[in-house]
Amino acid sequence: MAYKIKSAECTVCGACEAECPNTAISLKKGTYIIDPTKCTECEGSFDSPQCAAVCPADCCVPA
Amino acid sequence: MGNVIKLDGILGVGELKMAAEAPPASGCTSSACGSSDGPADMAPEVWEKVKNHPCYSEEAHHYFARMHVAVAPACNIQCNYCNRKYDCSNESRPGVVSEKLTPEQAVKKVLAVAQEIPQLSVIGIAGPGDSLAAGGKNSFATFEMLSRLAPDLKLCISTNGLALPDHVERLKNYNVDHVTITINMVDAEVGERIYPWIYYNHKRWTGRDAAKILHERQMLGLEMLTSAGILAKINSVMIPGINDQHLMEVNAQVKKRGAFLHNIMPLISDPAHGTHFGLTGQRGPTAQELKALQDQCEGGAKLMRHCRQCRADAVGLLGEDRGDEFTIDRIEAMEVSTDDAVRKTYRDHVESERAKRAESKEAARAEVAETVGTEVKPILVAVATKGGERINEHFGHAREFQIYEVGHAGAKFVGHRRVEQYCEGGSGDEDALSTVLAAINDCAAVFVAKIGGCPKTTLEAAGIEPVDSYAFEYIEESALTYFKAYAERVSQGLAPNGVTRDAVIRPAEPAALRA
């Protein structure tokens, strides 16, 4: 299971990148993406996916 | 790319001549008018810190420029007055930015601006998100480079305070001695109507819990700044019906914790910005509502009234924005140096100017205090200025008017009003003129360097006297001289005693009026 970023709604603020415990989020061609092979939905690290908790545009969602 | 200094524009036409002829001037001793923060008002070490900072000293804002570098797009809270999706280069309000910069780009931009604008004294990070969110990584990387390459520039940041307690030590290490915290409430019941959520300790908090955590972190951060000897300015957004009366309590609480300045700003809630408040019809205050609240808070934490609520990438003197001249593309093509000689020359000049000014202002103030009785009510005057504390802008070219209150007690700056430029390309725009009238409707007079016949008639009909006889003279001295004559007319029954009209702080753009 992994999360994804709805790029049309993303403001490219980078808040998610800073919070991801797995360094799964990176900036590619002007938009942030989540590497599904690294994403754990924060299981074992936190109570809820951090990218979704911090995103101002609520655009980090289950893939 | 020569040095675009144009000192005469800033300092007034024929600086030396003016200095010799300047009328014995005036103004307000700081004790007479709380917000005119002069050296007499504060400890020498504090004055040393703020005297060249346009956002911390009302006096400095006539002479010095700031720039914000937009390196911090991430935020850790959501405010109902903010929508960071919206971006327009014609918009001027916090949280808005045209280009996000990397720390390296920001540093190059600072050096480019510093060599073009000698008035530059302050580099601030004000978002467009929160400067300390996401660990403050970009903000501190920028400060690290700037403190090496341009040590004469003051560094400052603006934050919502949530992450502040974690970073006070580090700010101190970079010699950041000015921090602004936006504090809109000291009561979670008020706070839950302003903040839908915060992100703290790896969790999204909502409702009263969110507001309570934010409040506690803000107070802790403020106390830590005070003990670290860092000056704290508190920004509060005045939201009628939600926190307007509550801001007096905020003022008292932040004063108790050592805040240096309190800046109460009007809510901006145009529905077109897409903010929660904008979309739900929450209105901002009128000019007189804002002023009344600011007046009620006098005597508490010192008030700041010259804030322009500028963009997170603003460049220039407050009230102007030259950001368009320094886009990433243009900066990449510029040769930049770290030579600070021009800035130093400018600062020395301002320093010598200041000494003369204090005396001149006091003389004009004393003259009014002696000759005008307290029964004459204070009035507001609008001033068209390009800076340098002078009336040096054409009515039709003004993009804002500075508002001074002048009365028996002296003259003081109490605010500004943004307008659409009336005259563009040589002809007047009637729609723009109506926004000017709405913006300065509570004023008895408008001081300008020059004005055409047509707007003059319209202003007179609206009860606002256009005055061009003080062209290029100092604002406060002129206001006091005008008030003395005005009081004379009041006593003869030729002028009304006081003005009771209200005004609009940011009148809608003509385009919106037409729609």
Short description:
The complex is a heterodimer of chains A (63) and B (515). Chain A has 63 residues and is an alpha+beta fold.
Note down, in words, how this protein is organized.
The complex is a heterodimer of chains A (63) and B (515). With 63 residues, chain A is α+β, with helices and mostly antiparallel strands. Chain A has a single domain, classed as 2-Layer Sandwich (Alpha-Beta Plaits). Chain A has two helices and four strands. Chain A has helices at 15-19, 50-54; strands at 3-5, 25-28, 31-34, 60-62. In chain A, β2 and β3 (31-34) form a beta hairpin. The radius of gyration of chain A is 10 Å and the shape is globular. The termini of chain A are close together. Chain B is α/β, with parallel strands linked by helices and 515 residues long. In chain B, the strands form four sheets. Chain B has an eight-stranded mixed beta sheet with strand order 10-9-8-5-4-3-1-11. Chain B has a five-stranded mixed beta sheet with strand order 14-13-12-17-18. In chain B, α4 (103-116) packs across α5. The longest helix of chain B is centred in the last third of the chain and has 31 residues, at 341-371. The radius of gyration of chain B is 22 Å and the shape is globular. In chain B, 56% of the residues are buried. The model of chain B is unreliable at 1-37 and 509-515 (pLDDT under 50). Classes of the chains: A alpha+beta (63), B alpha/beta (515). Chains A and B meet through α1 and α2 of A and loops of B.
Count of the domains of chain B: 2
Oligomer: heterodimer
Number of strands of chain B: 18
Strand content of chain A: 15-25%
CATH topology annotation of the largest domain in chain B: TIM Barrel
**Assigned CATH architecture of the largest domain in chain B:** Alpha-Beta Barrel
Shape of chain B: globular
Strand order of the largest sheet of chain B: 10-9-8-5-4-3-1-11
Identify the CATH class of the largest domain in chain B.
Alpha Beta
